Amino acid sequence: MALPLYGFMEGDTIGLLIVADEQESVRSLAAKLRDAASLRVDGSSHLEVVYRGLVLDPDSTLAQADFKPLQRFDLRMNHGLSESRCSR
Amino acid sequence: MLNREDWLPLARKLDWEFSYSTEQDVFPEIISGSPWLPHAIWKDWEEAFKTSYREYVQNQHEKDMAVYAVRDAVGRLENVQALATPWINGLKIHAAALPLAEFTGTIGNLRGARFGRDSAWRAMACFGALDEFRHTQIPLLLMHELVRWNAQFDWAHKFYHTNNWFAIAARHFFDELTLGQNAIEFHIATNVILETGFTNLQFVGLASLAHEAGDHLFEKMVTSIQTDEARHAQIGHPVLAMVMKHDPDYAQYLIDKWFWRNWHLFSILTGVSMDYMTANDQRSGSFKEFMEEWIVDQFFRTLDEFGLKKPWYWDIFLEELEIYHHMIYASAYTYRSTLWFDFVMPSPSDRKWLRQKYPKHWDDMDAVWERIGERWKAAGPGADKESATLGTAMPTFCDLCQLPLSAGTPRNNTANALAYDGRDYIFCSQPCRWIFLGEPQRYASHKGLVKRVLSGEAPADFNTLLTSYFSLTPDTWGKDVYAGAYHWLQREGAPAP
Description:
The structure holds two protein chains of two kinds.
Chain A: E1 2-9, E2 16-21, H1 26-37, E3 47-51, E4 54-56, E5 72-77, E6 85-86
Parallel strand pairs in A: 1-5, 4-6
Antiparallel strand pairs in A: 1-2, 3-4, 3-5
Chain B: H1 4-12, H2 23-26, H3 29-32, H4 39-42, H5 53-74, H6 77-81, H7 85-115, H8 119-142, H9 144-149, H10 151-156, H11 165-179, H12 183-213, H13 216-232, H14 236-246, H15 248-275, H16 287-305, H17 314-321, H18 324-334, H19 348-357, H20 362-379, E1 416-420, E2 423-427, H21 430-438, H22 440-443, H23 449-454, H24 462-469
Antiparallel strand pairs in B: 1-2
Helix pairs in contact in B: 5-13, 7-8, 7-11, 7-12, 8-13, 12-13, 12-14, 12-15, 12-16, 14-15, 15-18, 18-20
């Protein structure tokens, strides 16, 4: 099932609509937003996807991470801060 | 013949008791506004100008003659063509946004002229309606010459009749503020917040920049408009005082709601014009400095005199004052083809000036411009290279203000999602969410651009969206003013443009 999501990349000035499949990986979702925002933000540093306050396992699928349509997710640069990692 | 002082008070205060209808039927609360109070309480409503129709016509005639004189002297096409290109593109924003917005003010005032609760209020609102009609006509007249010269000025006339994203946002704002509003809320939101606050900034602050930019026609136009605004804005003050006396919580709610709605729209309209479309050697101050003088200081001193408090989101507002229109401008630059005017990249000297004026977050904004500049460098200048610096992913919009989700900072965008009554919403900021939740029945059914795309009402393909839904064409969509040919962007060894 297609999931329209609001993606926010750290360093960017606007949220973007990212449409993903629920069987897609978190890593793939991150790549889509990084590419879409690359005009304004350098995405070469290590990035992590944050959804509902949790840092997601990049190998999990969006369905496993319990993504719902029209929700916000963030792509954050890893500053070495520890946040709970979750694959749901 | 009676003297003026004998007949004018009688003519202005021509109220009577109803025999065949009730006062509630003549002035229903749904259209006259809340709190509903009998006329006995409104009967001493008064404002300072007390203008007669004869005086109104005479004054307006003199003002029009003064505008025409300036037009005859400096309003020819070649005068506009001699202005700096970024400033001319700022004019295109106003050519689109101003005339029909003013016309909606005519309709709002006519509602006050019928449903205002005292005859003096209704008489003054008649003049307000005539004022706003004048403010519709003046920009149409003065910028008409430009329609034949430039397709984007021509498109500006279509603006409110398109589904361009900024038109959706502007209609959402003016439909509520003026076209569909009861008399009390209209006069407080329009006269007190918009006209005493924000158009003062727009018409006085921006007029001073127009003077510096050498655009004396625009300067004359907005200062002439402002003389009308200063008069009819006085309607809102006694209305606010009465609401404050009988329902202070509601008065505070209206101030909080409408200050935020005005703030977002005007930070784009005025903020972008001041800080980006005006050459930096012609800027007498930053948008933030004008805001601090006209809004933070003067306007809120006025509200304090009414016993009103600063809005609950004051700290959020002060934070946005540092960065919101910068977030919007950088975003819009990379989506310039979705708009009808051309953009300029801030030069190193612009960015130095912006850093001085907005030190708190400029490092993050500067990184964005650096990145865009790198794209231009890699692609090289030229109209055929525009696409290298254009976003292609669908931008997103707030379900309240309908403006891009560009609030907060690059490090911490403040967009927040809400599930309400089985539907999903997203808001750019906590105040927009609060406004929505204050009157969900008013806002919940409105479909923003993203939901129109997802439902198939608007095309998902970006180019088709631009042409068939936003009604733009290659001639009219926004471009970089210099097509990336900035001398400070040239690659080493590349020939100068």
